[in-house]
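Changelog note: in this version the structure field was regenerated for every chain. One regenerated record is shown below for reference.
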Amino acid sequence: MPPFNRAADVGATFAERIQVSTELTTLIGGATADRAALSGMFGLGFSLGTGESQPTLQLNPVDGGERVDVVLLVDRAALERLGGQALIGSNQSCFHLPSELRAIVLMLCNSPAQGEARTAYRLAKSIELVCETVRLFESGRMVVAVCEGLCSEADGRRLAAARRMIDERWNEKLTLDQIARACGLNRAKLTRGFREMFNCSIAEALAERRLLEARRLLLTTDLPVSSVGYESGYLNNASFSRAFGRHFGRSPSDYRAVGVAA
């Protein structure tokens, strides 16, 4: 994700700006995040949602985007030190907001304390919100919001479970009906939602996972190419070679030769 573009009036659209440290700024009560702009910072935008939209976490909210209630501007190096590499490198930008994070955001927006105690309270909650966001993201608890929040969090979790099933059981003869039953979705919702969430079909995700395993076996073992294909879920060596060539641009034998030479 690219950092925000710089703007002269940082945080001008927000009711309150809290300078937690040189590495963390909290903006509360804003309508948009378009002016929350600091070079080298990474933005975490938290929306509590309305009656028509789900609470969400937006990574680096952009100009003209959805309303956010709280934005944390975190120095990228600091976020990496906290273990937030996956956050920074995510190719998704909007996630359902887990109840744990929603509770912290609510406390930030509606702090019960006053005066200096209110400031100290919000400083502590800002740090807690960063750390909890990193923890939940790294533990796989964050579910991508499909179709700008139109998909429910429950369905998002079911779709994420379908992806985990493919990633963990790729060497089994998985069918669409089997995955749908295991995840509690009908075929149509699974097919449509999976493509929207992961930008590929079930079959494409399964093929990619199997081909990645085949690549690993080619580079790390002496198994014959035909055995590599079989171990990767392909019963026909010709279909394995065609699929591998389309995905990696080389035949399995050529890929192994180039990899060994390198």
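Spot check on this record: Residues 1-12, 31-36 have pLDDT under 50 and may be disordered. The CA atoms of residues 166 and 205 lie 7 Å apart.
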